């Protein structure tokens, strides 16, 4: 669990940020925000369906490395 995070009483699998007591909006409008990050490589791919979730295949030499995923549309 993240520091300063407390379990949500409604569902023990979710984490609620104590600085913001609002529940996240499920049907929030698509508001674009800017992210600025440093990294080694970047790929742009489409997420494929995989059971009840989505999947993105990455190169085998990325295995074991830390990645960040940003939804762009």
Task: Walk me through what this model shows.
The protein is an all-beta fold and 73 residues long. It has a domain at 42-67. The chain is 0% helix and 14% strand. It contains no helices and four strands. It has strands spanning 6-7, 15-16, 48-50, 53-55. A two-stranded antiparallel ribbon has the order 1-2. Strands 3-4 form a two-stranded antiparallel ribbon. Strand 3 and strand 4 (53-55) form a beta hairpin. It is extended. It starts with 5 loop residues before the first strand and ends in an 18-residue tail after the last strand. Residues 4-17 have low confidence and may be disordered.
Keywords:
two-stranded antiparallel sheet, two-stranded antiparallel ribbon, 0% helix
What is the helix/strand order? Answer: EEEE
The count of helical stretches stands at 0
Structural class: mainly beta
* End-to-end gap: 29 Å
Strand order of the largest sheet: 1-2
3D shape: extended
- Computed over alpha carbons, the radius of gyration is 16 Å
**Could you give the count of β-strands?**
4
Low-confidence stretches: 4-17
Outline the biggest β-sheet.
2 strands, antiparallel
Write down the overall mean pLDDT.
77
Binned, the helix content reads: under 10%
In what range is the share of β-strand residues?
Answer: 5-15%
């Amino acid at each position: 669990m993240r520091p300063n995070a407390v379990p949500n009483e409604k569902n023990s699998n979710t984490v609620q940020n104590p600085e913001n007591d609002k529940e996240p909006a499920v049907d929030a409008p698509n508001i674009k925000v800017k992210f600025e990050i440093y990294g080694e490589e970047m790929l742009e791919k489409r997420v494929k369906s995989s059971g009840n979730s989505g999947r993105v295949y990455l190169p085998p030499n990325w295995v074991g490395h830390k990645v960040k995923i940003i939804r762009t549309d």
